[in-house]
Design a protein that fits this description.
The structure is a single chain. The chain is of the alpha+beta class. It has one domain. It has 3 helices and 6 strands; from the N terminus they run E-E-E-E-E-H-E-H-H. Strands 1, 3, 4 and 6 form a 4-stranded antiparallel β-sheet that branches. Strands 2-5 form a two-stranded antiparallel ribbon. The two termini are about 30 Å apart.
Length: about 180
Amino acid sequence: MGEKTTLEWTSNFALSWSDFQAESNPAVFEDSHSVIKYRFTWVVDSEIVDRNVVFLINDISLFVEFHPLLSWVRQSDANESLLNHEQGNFDLAELVKRENMVHLQEQFYKKHFSTRGQNDEQRKQFAKEDSGKMINEQVEKLQNLFNERSQKYQNDTNYGKNFEEQSKYDLIFKQLHT
């Protein structure tokens, strides 16, 4: 049975040290490192408006994924408080997603986008391709926002070593799991 290449965030899932499968990097300051990314799915429909084929984007879903094969921990430093801190990073990605999902959908829902192509089949193919690029551009912005917030989280909590600051974040993240 193969190893999972990603773990999707859910309210009843918690990371364990066995999820950190990459080799640790002795040259860096961090005791652990999580790779967390967003993945999306969507539906694209087309219709004819003023004799032109246009496409519409519907049902955008966004998923927060942890990448075990790229995430690591220095085994000598693996403890419960550090694991809690890494879970917090995963939770932070979900929080950023929730805070921005409506804005992401508003950029695309109930709007018509022109398409290209010589025939219906080409237009459908280009609509799927172009809509994917458009959404991906916005998801990359969301990823950058998460990366910024994650760096602030690392700094505020001193990578989980500032227990007072970590506990403030823990209270925020606990709301995601209820």
